[in-house]
TrEMBL record:
This is dTTP/UTP pyrophosphatase. InterPro entries: ITPase-like_fam, Maf-like. GO terms for biological process: nucleotide metabolic process. It catalyses: dTTP + H2O = dTMP + diphosphate + H(+); UTP + H2O = UMP + diphosphate + H(+). The lineage of its organism: Bacteria, Bacillati, Bacillota, Bacilli, Bacillales. GO terms for molecular function: nucleoside triphosphate diphosphatase activity.
Length: 187
């Protein structure tokens, strides 16, 4: 069994890998998330996923290290995690009644190989009222989540339709991640 490290502080990513029955450690190294201007959503999430994995792999060169990053994009606007309730409210108003895309980039760095990929999932919201939004924000759920909602929580009530990998919206495209791990020799 080769050592597997999840380079993420996200409790959702941890839960998903546990659900798949994988054995792994969690190690997080604080990176200063660098985004270049003019990068596409695909480039942003892949680059941040790679930076997170690389920072941990440097001090654990024998391990397989997974890094990931998730953003929400609507109408070319990139929505990360809201910093304030006000920002969460603005994000949810923007997403109401519309289709947005969730991009999750994943980087896997192994001793002699590395792979980076991205998944895009389209999510359509029902029309949501300001009252729904205020109530939701009071639950505290939006604050640590890209796009200010959690599809796996009460945010599920906003979702009319999804096309693509559900788990990628939660933070990690699970099946593809495990398939790519196996492809580069992890077992
Ligand atoms: C859209 C959406 C996002 N999210 C979460 C997934 C990610 O944890 C978070 C986006 O932030 P990220 O920067 O991708 O990850 P993180 O800061 O939580 O963890 P780390 O950088 O240490 O890996 O939003 C949900 O949980 N549900 C959702 O429906």
């Amino acid at each position: 069994m080769k050592r597997l490290i999840l380079a993420s502080s996200s409790p959702r990513r941890k839960q998903l890998l546990e659900m798949a029955g994988l054995r792994f450690d969690i190690l997080v190294s604080d990176i200063d998330e660098q985004i270049q201007r003019n990068e596409s959503p695909e480039q942003i999430v892949q680059s941040l996923a790679y930076q997170k994995a690389k920072a941990v792999q440097k001090t654990n060169p024998g391990a397989y290290v997974i890094g990931a990053d998730t953003i929400v994009v609507y109408n070319r606007q990139v929505l990360g995690k809201p910093k304030t309730k006000q920002e969460a409210c603005e994000m949810l108003r923007l997403l109401s009644g519309k289709t947005h895309h969730v991009f999750t980039g994943v980087a896997i760095i192994a001793p002699e190989q590395e792979t980076v990929f991205v998944e895009r999932t389209a999510v359509t919201f029902w029309d949501i009222t300001d009252e729904d939004i205020f109530e939701y924000i009071e639950t505290g759920e939006p604050m640590d989540k890209a796009g200010a909602y959690g599809i796996q929580g009460k945010g599920a009530l906003f979702v009319k339709r999804i096309e693509g990998d559900y788990f990628s919206v939660v933070g990690l495209p699970l099946a593809r991640t495990v398939r790519e791990l196996k492809k580069i020799g992890w077992k």
